[in-house]
Amino acid sequence: MARIDIVMPQMGESIAEGTLSRWLKKPGDAIKRDEAIFEISTDKVDAEIPSPAAGVLVEILVIEGMTVPVQAIVARIETDAAAAVVVADAPLAFAPTVTAPPTSAPAVSAPTSATVVAAPHAPANSLDERLRTRSSPLVRKIAAEHGVEIAAISGSGISGRVTKRDILAHLDAPTPPPSAPLTVATPLAGLPATMMVPAQAAHAAHEAHTAQAWPGDVVEPFSKIRRLTADHMAQAVRVAAHVTSFFEVDLTRVARIRAGMRKDFEAQTGQKLTYLPFIVQSVLAQLKRHPMLNAAVNGTEMIYRKQYNIGIAVALDPTGLIVPVVKRADDLSLGGLTRSINDLAARARSKALKPDDVTQATFTITNPGVFGSLMGTPIIPVGTTAILGLGAIEKRPKVITGPDGEDTIAIRTCAYFSLSFDHKVVDGADADRFMADLKRTLETLPEPTV
Predict the structure, then answer these.
(1) Partners of 30 in the β-ladder
(2) What φ, ψ does residue 74 adopt, rounded to 5°?
(3) pLDDT of residue 346
(4) Is the pLDDT reported for residue 351 higher than 90?
(5) Hey, where are the domains in the chain?
(6) 386-390 and 363-366 as β-strands: parallel, antiparallel, unpaired?
(7) How many CB atoms lie within 10 A of CB 82?
(8) Cβ-based neighbour number of residue 371 at 10 Å
(9) CATH class of 126-174+223-239
(10) Overall pTM surpassing 0.90 (yes/no)
(11) Using one digit for the tens of pLDDT, what is the confidence trace for 300-318?
């Protein structure tokens, strides 16, 4: 018999665990090599995981919705179909085990039972204790920034590992009251935030986010990707001092260049030519001139990235958001950028992204303008210092000054661009200089090289 273990893959450099969100196969199913077996979700990616070999799925060790460490065995495949003995619904020790007879015999259902045993307290420096405190780099970074001792937090991960959700919940939890009762003349919810001490403000914020369902309401739990998005956005707002600057950009020059080369470009490359690759090329040129916007913050240090990896936000249907990354985008031509952007977007929507596709962004672009939005204040992804938002591109009447100094009204193709930046490390003047240079570049764009 040739039995192969299927493990939870490492979905990004800072990812210590993943959630198995859905099984695509069941015990006894024949599987082809590279055929998708299950879906996983992490705070970086929502993806389908392919089989490393052809065979029969004989054992499932992790149930849907369970979060396990990377490299944990989640299933087993038997490559010799004739020798396959199926073990149905056999998750880890956290759920009941049901064993089915060999596939050659008729299946007989059997009642199941589960026993929950409280784990004894692990002594200091034991394996369990080391596993519990060996959290992901992201969790350790959040803990360091807020002065939190990870060992003091009750973790919900494997072996009590503290996950990102655990530490965010710990930070949101109200501080225990002092030994002497605190008398407040008015309810916390009625106090202005400026009048509250931090513990009161945290408690009031917690209460403000608690809602009760009314008769006739429909209550639906968050999907996995919605929970991850919510966690990520809440953390992003917590760690960056958000400020947004708006510029109107005249894209008439870009529109004319695009119209002139579109037919030949699409015939040569087979790719649809949009405004986005032109904008990405111009952004790359300005990031090299304004390095603080292609940077990251590490405590009291700035890390100026020498790679230019552009994250492109992609909306998923029916709900959700993911940000695949064009790596070393400055090495790509207009055609190369177009192919990369289109490929990543297509694979994001078909859940075919790989772990490397969603990591190491140094700057992000989001394009809500495709839905008609004129402008917005996008949230800066964790690990970067800025994000560019693109508003709807539309024709507008504008006052134009001619060579003779006379003003005339003309129809121009324009859009509002918004730059959200971390004011802890990026000054407003630096952000506005970046935007002014980006505006000038797009409005005087030379003929590009495909």
Answers:
(1) 56
(2) -110, -20
(3) 92
(4) no
(5) 3-83, 126-174+223-239, 242-443
(6) parallel
(7) 9
(8) 8
(9) few secondary structures
(10) no
(11) 999 999 999 999 999 887 6
